[in-house]
Structure prediction request, 297 residues.
Amino acid sequence: MKKSFFYLGLTLLAAVLVTSCTKDEDQNPFQELEAKGAVVNITDVDGFFDLTDPNATVTFTISTLGESVSSLKVWKSINGATPVEQGTVSSFPSVQTYSVNDAVAGTGVSAGDLAVGDVITYSFSDVVTSSGTFPAGKSVGYDVKCPSDLGGIYDFSTESTGTAPWTTGVVTTGKIRFDDLGSGTYDLYTTPTGGVEFLDISMGAYFGGWGYDGSDATNQNSMPNTGLSTGRVQLSDLCNTLSFKGASQWGETYTFNNVSVDGTGTVLTLDWINSYGEGGIAKITRTDGTTWPPLTK
Prediction:
């Protein structure tokens, strides 16, 4: 019995020692590297690759800890492809700034080949110190996308059009709010003159077409987009190209006949129709002292 207890005690002690060693390594994954080299830090990561502005840049800062670093290599990869060397950095901290053209140079991909959703990743290797050359084990990725900044409250004047069994040619005015949800997606809200705010992808056409009372909030139940989780149509801005996404609670889909900005840049005209035949021509005027981007459909 004593012999069995002795062996059991040795077994438990060994288990504790193994666990303790593993825990220490987890607490300091750079322990070995710090003892004989340096750790690379990537900070101040900022920006994205803007398809509408090839001169726009992304930046990050490379700094080091531990031993003095004489140089390291920066690599780039588009959507996980084989990395291509971007260059060598030999002083630290170092702010790295790259444009779209910098990012694609030498990769076999042109700036025109990039699309929204692509990712360009920078990684680092060959960290040279006096005690040797080590891997950095770090990377930073940047999305390729287009900025969208349509959010705000503006004046609207919308005429009901289309072929549905409703009244066409009726004009409704008031305020329209573009609620920016990020990534170029917007919910639209209208407040008819003298009325209350409605979630309203029709941009006011429903009030004229169906004769709804804009001061009666219960009319929301008869509007498209009742509820935010289901039956919801939204406006999408992808690189200044507007479209509708989603469907109404009745399964209706929406398309644009025409999208245009006037010569002053302040009036956006959105001519739309849905699969039921309801439509509208909305003239949306900026009131914030700025202009619309060159929006199209």
